[in-house]
Amino acid sequence: MIPIAKPVPADIAPAAQRKTVFRIFQEKRGRWCARSDDGMTGGTFFTHQAALRFVRREVAGMTALVLHIAPQPRG
C-alpha cells in the first residue's frame, strides 16, 4: 500500500500552531518599525501605537510574540 501523505515529525509544529515573532523598534530617524522575524511582513510608522496596531492586525487569531526594543538614547 502506498501512503497518501508523509507523517509530520513530532518536533515540527503545524503552520497554524507556530509562533509568529514581531519586533517593534525605533530607527535612528525617530520612526517606529514593526518587522516579522522571517522578513516577510513589516512596516514603518510615525508612532509606536500605529506599529503595535499593525502587528495586532497581522497576528489576529494567531499566537504571537511581540518584542519591544527600547529606543537608543540620542546625543
Produce the secondary structure layout.
Elements: E1 20-26, E2 32-36, E3 42-45, H1 48-58, E4 64-68
Parallel strand pairs: 1-4
Antiparallel strand pairs: 1-2, 2-3
Give the termini distance in whole angstroms: 70 Å
Q: Evaluate the radius of gyration.
A: 17 Å
| Strand order in the sheet with the most strands | 3-2-1-4
Given as residue ranges, the uncertain stretches (5+ residues, pLDDT < 50) are: none
Strand content: 25-35%
Count up the helices: 1
Please give the number of β-strands.
4
Please state the overall shape, judged from the principal axes of the Cα atoms: elongated
Helical residue percent band: 10-25%
Summarize the structure in short.
With 75 residues, this protein is of the alpha+beta class. It has a domain of 50 residues.
Give structural attributes:
four-stranded mixed sheet; 75 residues; 1 helix; elongated; 4 strands; alpha+beta
Describe this structure in words.
The model has no long low-confidence stretch (mean pLDDT 81). The protein has a domain of 50 residues. It is 15% helix and 28% strand. The radius of gyration is 17 Å and the shape is elongated. Strand 1 and strand 2 form a beta hairpin. With 75 residues, the chain is α+β, with helices and mostly antiparallel strands. It contains 1 helix and 4 strands. It has a 4-stranded mixed sheet, with helices on one face. It starts with 19 loop residues before the first strand and ends in a 7-residue tail after the last strand.
